[in-house]
Amino acid sequence: RLPLYFVVPICISEESILKYEGRGIPIWCWSCHNGAALLKMSAFPKEQDDSTSQMQKAFLDGIYKTISKPPYELLKMDDLSSSLPSLQDIQTAYTRFKQLFLIDNSTDFWATDVKWFSLLESTNWLEIIRRVLKKAIEVAECLEIQHTNVLLIEETATDLCCVISSLVQVMMDSYSRTKSGFQSLIQKEWVIGGHCFLDRCNHLHKSEKEEAPVFLLLLNCVWQLVQQYPPAFEFTETYLTVLSDSLYVPIFSTFFFNSQHQRDTNKSGESLKTQSGPFRFLTVWDWSVQFDPKAQAFLNNPLYAEKPKPDRTQRKTARFKHQRQLSLPLTQTKPSTKRGFFREETDHLIKNILGKRIGKFINSSDEPPNSLREFYDSWHSKPVDYHGLLLPRIDGPEIKVWAQRYLRWIPEAQLHGGGTIATAAKILDLMEEVQSLQVKMDEERSQAVSGDLHSVPMLRNSARLSSLFPFALLQRQSVKPALPTSTWKDLEDEDDLVKRDDEFVDLSGDML
Question: What is the pTM of this model?
């Protein structure tokens, strides 16, 4: 499950990685602007043999001693298996949650509506989302405020570790909130990182024991941020919705395999041939496979506040800085002119990746117990910087149901001419009015307005739209939704597709 390339402490040999099958190896994920690093590690299995256990302990101690050189920061170790729900609990909660939306008729809908909130609370799904977001805030506080490295530990480091590390990067790195950045994040942490999509999604319908909606949990958490801070994201909730749908479309290889190795092995197999030639794997990121250009416009956020570009005169005099934190950690000391960039950052990674021995990893007792709450309240008391740190609101009713994804097929739940789509349309009208006034005054176009405000022309008359647009039907004679609901649009006539029920694709056979 290990990726082809990954960053580890220099003291770890390839023989050790092969011997322990990647377990006990801290792998670097991302670094904050202050140099604090986020890492993940798969835990050693509990051994009954004392000699094996002692050998594993000696191996870990050797790693910690090699790079335990003050005055570099301590590393906080966080065992996610003890602080977050298990995969079984997540699967159980999501199964109960899905049942709320399996409604056959209006009678069932109104019967459920009477006790909706109690039923929703009993599923525990929103509480799991809240706990995951809170854990991401804790990690962000360690990196941003305490300048402390964080090591996330899990049995395989490919499930909840992926969720937390991805959320932290979305919250702290504005590049991860762009379409290209979010795609790179998913590829790095999930696809190449070894998340078991085949087992967790149960694509082959072989066993339900390994099934768990881990990736959907991430998308639900990201959606909370998108709906709380729309100008901070280049993509829309529709982007997240179609991405979650693509998780179960078997023609894409992106979310179909358990690891990069499994994908490459099957890709090079001799059996993957068709009459017209070798079988071609499709990537989910090529949206033209599913949607035409007009439909793809719904994936772009017209309210996105693009990061202002620095003035040319300032760029000539300013010292070069790395704006993206997707490389190795930055050094805190002044760079040497005699050493290369990669060598300098690698040295800092070695010194920062693990600060002290394992017995000293836990937070110091001098740390105030309410520091997290102070950090949370302090951030929310200030104006939001859409290009800086984002902290989700997790109190009370702030955690909401992803209505577009789960209610789009329930006609009774739609608000015609209302909902967030109506709000977005009014905001677009105001933005266009401001823009026209600026043009008349011969002023420069506002940097806060990015993209083409006319990219989604159907928003011009919000009174005719449903709150679940573009998936819900419009109030007109045409029954065709704005966004196609089938991937197989090239196989038959589009008008026929919208009149048909969703087809069930049987994947119970052996994988090629």
Answer: 0.76
- Tokens 């301590």 correspond to 74
3-state DSSP percent of the chain in helix, strand and coil, to 5: 45, 5, 50
> Helix, strand or coil for residue 42?
strand
Name the amino acid, one letter, at 259.
S
Query: Are 148 and 204 contacting, i.e. CB atoms less than 8 angstroms apart?
Result: no
Q: What is the pLDDT along the chain (512 residues), one digit of tens a residue?
A: 677 777 766 666 677 666 666 677 788 899 898 888 898 888 877 655 676 677 767 766 666 654 444 455 567 888 999 999 999 999 999 999 999 998 888 888 888 888 999 999 999 999 999 999 999 999 999 999 988 888 899 988 899 999 999 999 999 999 999 999 999 999 999 999 889 999 999 988 887 888 999 999 999 999 999 999 999 999 999 999 999 999 998 888 899 888 887 887 777 654 555 555 566 778 999 999 888 888 888 899 988 988 777 655 554 444 444 344 443 433 343 343 433 333 344 444 444 444 333 333 334 334 445 789 999 999 999 999 999 999 999 988 899 999 999 988 888 877 776 667 667 777 777 777 777 787 877 665 555 444 445 445 555 555 566 666 677 655 444 445 666 654 444 444 444 434 434 433 343 444 44
- Round to whole Å and give the CA distance between 392 and 499: 40
Judge whether 253 and 286 are in contact, CB under 8 Å: no
Residue among 427, 484, 435 nearest 459 (CA): 427
**H-run or E-run covering 31:** strand 27-31
Question: Residue 187: which of 212, 215, 210, 211 has the closest Cα?
Answer: 215
Give 1-24 as a 3 state SS string. Answer: CCCCCCCCCCCCCHHHHHHCCCCC
Nearest-angstrom CA–CA distance, 335 and 345: 9
